[in-house]
Structures are given as C-alpha cells and as structure tokens.
Amino acid sequence: MIFKSNFTKKAALAAFAGAVAATAMPVASVAQDAAAGRPPQGWFKVCTKQEDNDVCIVQNLLTASNGQLITAVGLISVQGKVNRKVLQVSVPSARLVPPGIQMQIDGGKGAKLDYAICMPDKCVAEVPLSDAVLASLKKGGEVVFTSVNFQRAPNPIKMSLNGFTGVFDGEPIEQSKLQERQRLLQEEMQKKADDARKKLEDAQKAATAN
User: Fold this and answer.
1) Of 147, 187, 152, which Cα lies nearest the Cα of 38?
2) Structurally, what CATH architecture does the domain formed by 9-209 represent?
3) Count of CB atoms within 10 A of residue 127's CB?
4) What are phi and psi of 161, to 5 degrees?
5) What is the dihedral of CA 32, 198, 23, 6, to 10 degrees?
6) How far apart are CA 169 and CA 177, in angstroms?
C-alpha cells in the first residue's frame, strides 16, 4: 500500500475518480472546444483539501466520440501530514492483469505500471511518481500507454505531453472553470445521445416504410 496514515489508497483513487469526472480541457480552449463541438482534451490541474493534506492532481483524459474512457492519467501530489507523489493510469476494463500497463516516453525504455484495482468500467494502475519519471514527462513530447485486452492484443494509446510542464508547475484551475468543464461535457454527451437516438428512430422508420 502506497498511502498510509489518514490518506489511504482508496482516498487517492477516489480523488482521481473525481477529477476524471470533471474531464480534461485546457482553460484557454473551453470556448473553442465548445463552439467546435469537440470533446474536451488536454492537461489540467485541480487541488483540494483532504483531512490534513493538500492534494493536487494533474490530469489528462482521452475519450472516444461516444464519451467512453480510452485512457486517463493522473499525477497525484499529497502534501501535509502525508507526503506522497503517485502516478495513476486508468484504462477500460476487460484487461489482462499480469502485463499491467507499459509506459513509454518518446520511444524510450518502457516502464511497467501494475494494476491497483479493477472496476466494472475501468482498471487503474498505480506507481510512485519518481523525480526521474516526472523529469522525463516534462522534457518529453509524447507518452504511450499500452495495456493488453482480454483477447491478448496490445492496445497502445498515445498522449501528447504538450502543455504538461506549464500545467504541472502552474496554478490549479478555478472551481468555476471546473464546473464549466463538467457542464460542457454533460451537454456534449447529451447531444451525442440525442443524435444517436434520432439516427435509430430514423432507421426504424425507414425499415417500417419498406
């Protein structure tokens, strides 16, 4: 177990899950993404208080066009009564557990991330965040996370590191901006659901007419 004292691994996972729900979108691109109808993407930072600890999470979330999780990354920094730095990566469920997730920065040597927990909708891998890994992420241009699905097929997902350093070293996003992210995501998902339902209804009407 990485987290001890009052800050448990369960609390860390819960903190990351909450950040995932907020979705990832650069503050400057909120209006642009909304106007273009694009799903939110990019690195962002949120901070919160948990018991006697200050917890900050730098996160990036990649989703499919239907909103399904592809890969979510969270770098969790805890300061206070407990001082820890953790890297967590979430991928869809139905993964082979022994291989874990391989992380490769700019084509370098891969590092294995072991799964900490698997839930019905996702599996989460977790490792301590070392200064060396953080430095590589800051200098890097791209990171690839590869999990293995239940068919034993590797599933590499590329994630840009553009803007990562500025977000990690910068100030966290304001609560109002975080709420705006959530609102835009909900609107985006509702629009996709409405479009899918309309297509299904149109197909049913066409089938009936024939």
Assistant:
1) 187
2) Sandwich (2.60)
3) 19
4) -100, 10
5) 160
6) 18
- Residue spans per domain, the chain: 9-209
Write the CB contacts of 70 (distance below 8 Å, at least 6 apart in sequence).
Answer: 62, 63, 64, 91, 92, 157
Dmax (CA) for the chain in angstroms is 69
Structure tokens at 112: 């294995």
62, 92 in Cβ contact below 8 A? no
pLDDT tens per residue, range 184-201 = 767 776 777 778 788 888
- Beta strand pairing call for 101-105 and 43-50: unpaired
Element (H, E) at 142: strand 142-148
Closest CA to 19 of 170, 175, 163, 190: 175
Name the phi and psi angles at 114, rounded to 5: -80, 145
pLDDT digit string (tens) for 45-97? Answer: 999 888 888 999 999 999 887 778 899 999 999 999 889 999 999 999 999 99
Residue 92 burial class via C-beta count within 10 angstroms: exposed 0-12, middle 13-18, buried 19 and up: middle
